[in-house]
Model the fold of this input.
Amino acid sequence: MKRMERIFSVPLKGGAVTDVYSAFSLAELHESLRAMGSSMLFVADDNTERFLPDWAERVILPHGERWKNWESVDRILSAALSSGLARDSVFVGVGGGVILDMAAFAASIYMRGARAVLVPTTLLAMVDATLGGKTGIDYGGGKNLVGTFFPAESVLILPDVLETLPEREYRCGLGEVVKHAFLSSSRRLYDFLADNRERVLGRDSSVMEEMIRLSLEVKIDYITRDPEERKGIRSALNLGHTFSHALEAAEDFSISHGEGVAWGTAAAFRVGRDKGITASDYADEAIRLIEDYGFDTSFRLPGNLFPSFMDAVSKDKKKKGGSVKFVLMEGQGKPVLIPLDEDAVRKAVLS
Amino acid sequence: MKRMERIFSVPLKGGAVTDVYSAFSLAELHESLRAMGSSMLFVADDNTERFLPDWAERVILPHGERWKNWESVDRILSAALSSGLARDSVFVGVGGGVILDMAAFAASIYMRGARAVLVPTTLLAMVDATLGGKTGIDYGGGKNLVGTFFPAESVLILPDVLETLPEREYRCGLGEVVKHAFLSSSRRLYDFLADNRERVLGRDSSVMEEMIRLSLEVKIDYITRDPEERKGIRSALNLGHTFSHALEAAEDFSISHGEGVAWGTAAAFRVGRDKGITASDYADEAIRLIEDYGFDTSFRLPGNLFPSFMDAVSKDKKKKGGSVKFVLMEGQGKPVLIPLDEDAVRKAVLS
Done:
């Protein structure tokens, strides 16, 4: 039998390390969790409960971003207390980014810090939400405005679970993957995506695992250089995100995160091109790759939503000392942080 | 004019440092806050609002342990959001431990970590609550069961504010000070307390400052050796606390923290003496010092409250792998962590 394999060991702030494992079957994944021997609480939603082992003590939350709030975290903490969990107990999140962010947030504040193990079940979560220790909930209309930095001990990835992921969710994960392709200082992921479009879109399991590894490699490179997002390096991972978060807020969350990021990344390329920061050729080629993966880059915000869009921009947590900086690209693997005035933003999202 | 003086610079986990300043006047303290230049939100309660500068944006909470809950933290976060605070903004807590723990908790989870500055206004908070980065709220009937480790950037101590502290609160702070006297590897604080009983009880301002410094020195020694309470060293600061927290819970918070700690410390000395861990002479002398400072060590728990007392013990966050360890003293400055069975606990608190 093939065994679960450690594919990355990511050094994070204060000497913490997150180990990333690739698993070959659900049974094996369950076995490795049971082998940890600690008391555990599983956190899942009504879609991901089926991935839990029979023996799991559990909290099942309703699915969806609108439940990413204190009420849900309160349910997790309350169940942890009822189950008698201690500081050395483990919160196991099984789900997409919403569940993982909340499970890890609850772990981070329970008794001032228990342990977190994450089992991402969406492509987006596999390549984005599980590494780097960002936990949190939405608050006061802003995404992830309340949370902590709290790296999971380990992340267990089972690419097979992607087989049953709804098509729209799968393609949304691809939004982050494509974004990572531009941020990488090598062109390996970029070329991989350009060369394997059909197989990736068809979820061929061998290319999926490769794609996840290459994509994680990019994220890991950025977060290890700036684990707490204090130096501005890691902010580059927010390519497309300031546009995206504001769009999601203005549209009341009807847009998925990955679609938003793909759209926001294309917007960043348009602004970069207009401002002479991104070479025209590279910007056009990049936008084409985004479109090749099925993302609509031609969408423009209806004018009447622009005020709420700007309101969400100004609430964005990347705001420092009054100005909001956007990630633009000077070229392959060369992000820059640039403050944009309202006119530049208006041009990028309306026209 | 005398200037605010830095009296300690405490190295904490991950390279963080908390600077402790001693201030000479409220005006000077306000001036130094204003000089920070960042956007700020002050958090106080109805007793401590009078210490705020006129210009302070503020959240005023009702005072008391029963308001140490999510609802209060929610009010702080919500005010922070309305005021447009960013990640580099400062949450300034002005009050006793309850306010400081909540202000720092809110700072720690706002945008995954803003900045915290603490102005303790009680003796207990000056010597106990402000250093080492423990933040939190009560949860599900347990004290501080939800929180984070999040060191404040700076702690501003103005001994003069103790002049107007209610007598009962002042004597409660003395409970922690006396506890620190036993934990110190030197006898300086112990001898200081033995020699200056009248002046300390009379709040002579020169001895108060010296007492606060000596007491902080002890705490700083323990926390710098174990900033995250992972090695068991820092757990020694919990001398008297497992007894005390359980007593406070069983009595529904009608006992003050300092009184509980003094009582719990005496209980730890009785258990230590009974088990042959603490020399009889030292235990008797220690209990006498506690009594000299006006604490009732003869109190015994009514038998009918013992079940809820044990329930609170078992919920105690220091529980690891099923057993609750108590801090006992082998001698001056020599704490040991010992698991106690129910009979030993019963004997210590009932008879």
Observations:
- DSSP finds 13 helices and eleven strands in chain A.
